[in-house]
Amino acid sequence: MGVDLIFKIAAIGILVAVLNQVLIRSGREEQAMMTTLAGIVVVLMMVAKEIANLFDTVKTMFQF
Amino acid sequence: MEILQIVGIGIVATILIAVLKTQRPEISLQVSILTGVVIFLLVASKLSAIISILDSYSKKVNIDTVYLATLLKIIGIAYIAEFGAEVCKDAGEGAIASKIELAGKVVIVALAVPIITSLLELIIKIMP
Predict the structure, then answer these.
(1) pLDDT tens digit sequence for B46-79
(2) Which of B109, B79, B118, B46 is nearest to A54 (CA)?
């Protein structure tokens, strides 16, 4: 279920890192910063969803 | 078997984190959090089976369900607090990790108070 999510997020991370370098080399520092922030927001949304899933599982399992 | 899959996921995720660590440390932290979540969800089905067995035994021996429910809640709180504290320690935030652990302990003691009072009453009843 979540295993492919790990690889998806790692791929996004690598993509953002490469894009960042390319943009910095071509002189557009602010756009590099924007893509970094965008990458972080996308990854954070996915991770937050999985954490919410974890909390629901624990809540149902331990009868909170 | 399950364990092979889990160890495989752990090692691959560690390698990916090593790749991402230098460039984007924040995304590598999120990959480590996600790996923890995925591994727990893989084990969750076995854990809930064990808990249901525990429930059935306690009903057979007709232990009061309040005690077992509180025990399970305490275990859940301990696990979540430890999960959060370890993530913060990984990120290098030792102070936040210790605050989370402190909060976990306080919540657990608050939950355990009714059991302690019932135990003390029992002891007082037994005393001549």
Answers:
(1) 999 999 998 898 888 887 788 888 999 999 999 9
(2) B79
Q: What's the rounded Cα separation, in Å, for the pair B24 and B74?
A: 36
B31 shares contact with chain A (CB less than 8 Å): yes
**ipTM of predicted complex:** 0.87
For residue A47, give the nearest of B30, B69, B76 by CB distance: B30
Number of structural domains found in chain A: 1
CA distance B124 to B121: 5
Q: d(Cα B27, Cα A43) in Å, to the nearest integer?
A: 7
Check whether A2 has a pLDDT greater than 80. no
Domain boundaries defined on chain B: 64-128
Whole-model pTM: value is 0.86
- Considering only CB atoms, which chain B residues are within 8 Å of A62? 51, 72-73, 75-76, 79
CA distance A9 to A50: 12
Range of the domain at A36: 2-61
